[in-house]
Amino acid sequence: MPDATGPDQIFQRALTNGEIMLPRCDDCGAYHFFPRVLCPHCHGTAISWHPASGKGRVHTTTVVRQKPERGGDYNVCVVELEEGVRMMSRVEGIAPGDIVIDMAVTAFVGGAEGQPAVLFKPAEV
Amino acid sequence: MTTKLRGKSAIVGTGHAGFGEAHGLTAYDVMAQSALAALGDAGLKLSDVDGLLCTMMEDSMPALMAAEYLGIQPRFIDGTMTGGSSFVNYLTSATMALEAGLCDVALIVYGSNQRTASGRLVTASRPPAYEAPYNPRYPISAYAMAAARHMHEFGTTREQLADVAVAARAWAQHNPEAFERGPLSRADVLGARMVGDPLTVRDCCLVTDGGGAIVMVRADRARDFPKAPVYVLGSAAESSHRQISQMKDFTVTAARESGARAFAAAGVSPSDIQAVELYDAFTINTILFLEDLGFCAKGEGGAFVEGGRIAPGGVLPVNTNGGGLSCVHPGMYGIFTVIEAARQIRGDAPGIQLKDVDLALAHGNGGVLSSQVTAILGSQNTL
User: Which residue intervals define the domain ChsH2 rubredoxin-like zinc ribbon in the entry (chain A) (predicted)?
Assistant: First the structure.
């Protein structure tokens, strides 16, 4: 997408390049997620893009139980990033049942359903 | 709805069809049988219906499909789709339409064959783009994460969640219309197959077929029908999000706002309510809604439901038909909260009939705790 201009395209193009970019409102200064053409906080339309810090905490989490022959159990969680936005994701590199609320996590670009996606791993202490 | 509309409309007929398994029937067949049952209850015919309020899990234009199937040409139609809360929401639009003279007989109707068709939730809705890649199991993962957060913040326990399911089953055991009537203990719920931590399959609503329908008219002619009228005293909605990742506080739903406005419109308070019918898609719902509607303080819902306190003989009758957990849950349950509330007031509840019910509450939930709609219904004595 060399001519990506829409909010979703900008986000997805960054992921393809291995970067996590977050939209921030120039008017009120607040970040938001998911990407869109206006700020959901102040409704301003001047949006700029900034690299995510990648630091976050697990806000809430669940284990999707699945038979081993279908791929086994996996994690689904909602992470709150340092920038104040939340996104659905999963934490990898740890058993799904060991992921707990408030756990510090670090974002990385991995793959989900064959597409680049924001994933998390436990933060190194 | 504001106090201006208090008591301006009434439910004069309720009906249902296809509870459990409706073999050989389509969702629209079940819808139509439900409509006929409710109209029969009201002593009316399909040709009397000039207002239709309907949505289904199939199609993008289900209200049009329903009107076509029923052979009616409604002059007022509302197909607003807010998930399972839609049918409680229609109480507001039906009241407005009736009061404004846009229609004279409003039919609210729903039907589903999801159990015999596929055995799982059937939906025309697409998974949200920024959530789908992570494969949440829709909708249970969303409710599981709300439950996890409630447990984290308030110390709510899996045992307390289980007690919601146990209470629902205890009501259902007295209701011949309920799909699941076998015994269910706290240990049964806790020991059942875990599907999305912390929820086991017994923390989840049933997957059944079924349909329901409600007939409404203006209050000035509500006493001209065979059954005692049930008046809509207040109804109110509030919507907070669509995707669970966008829910601001996973432990507080918009039922706080919808409930407060419904109570204000009706001029009553939670302590006046004699029967509480909540959309219990998952056990955490009942706890959240009891808190948000003001039956107990935030964070105290777990203790409030513990040990049979909302079961028959407890301190507050909640989901007196057995709810979506044990009575019926055909994809969207909202309409059955209204039907059970109305039947408790009329005195013809199918299971345990509470004594002298004048005020009942029906609460619908839609999406993933996204849309909340509260209605207060009352007998003639409450006007």
Answer: 14-46
A53 close to A42: Cβ distance less than 8 angstroms: no
Residue of A nearest to B241 (CA): A40
- Cβ of B197 within 8 Å of Cβ of A62? The answer is yes
Cβ contact, residue pair A33, B130, below 8 Å: yes
| Residue A90 included in any domain | yes
Interface A–B counts its CB contacts (< 8 A) at 74
Mutual angle of helices B62-70 and B27-42, in 10-degree steps: 60
Enumerate the residues of chain B whose CB falls inside 8 A of the CB of residue A77: 145
> What amino acid occupies position B265?
A
In a domain, A108, yes or no: yes
For residue A65, give the nearest of B133, B196, B243 by CB distance: B196
- Do A25 and A67 share a domain, yes or no? no
Q: Do A117 and B133 touch (CB under 8 A)?
A: yes
Strand arrangement, sheet containing B76-78:
B76-78, B51-54, B106-112, B209-218, B9-20, B230-239, B371-378, B359-366, B275-278
We report the CATH number of the domain holding residue A107 as: 2.40.50
Residue span of the structural domain in which A80 resides: 55-122
pLDDT of residue B34: 98
Topology match between the domains B3-119+209-228 and B137-194+234-382: yes
For residue B375, what are the CA distances in angstroms to B77, B109, B262, B263, B337? 20, 17, 6, 8, 10
Of B130, B134, B152, the CB nearest to A34: B130
| Residues in chain B closer than 8 A to A76 (CB atoms) | 134-137, 141, 145
Domain count, chain A: 2
Task: Report the b/e string of A104-114 with b at 16+ CB within 10 A.
Answer: ebebebeeeee
d(CA B260, CA B91): 17
Q: Each residue of B164-187: pLDDT tens digit?
A: 999 999 999 999 999 999 999 999
pLDDT tens digits, one per residue of A7-65: 999 999 999 999 999 999 999 999 999 999 999 999 999 999 999 999 999 999 999 99
Comparing alpha-carbon positions, the chain A residue that sits nearest to B135 is A76
Q: What is the CATH number of domain B3-119+209-228?
A: 3.40.47.10
Contact at CB, A76 and B141, closer than 8 angstroms: yes
Q: Is the pTM of this model over 0.90?
A: yes
Q: What is the structure's pLDDT at A3?
A: 61
In a domain, A2, yes or no: no
Taking an 8 Å cut-off on Cβ atoms, the answer to whether A63 and B196 are in contact is: yes
Q: Which of A34, A78, A112 sits opposite B133 (nearest CB)?
A: A112
Chain B: give the shortest CA distance to residue A12, in Å: 11
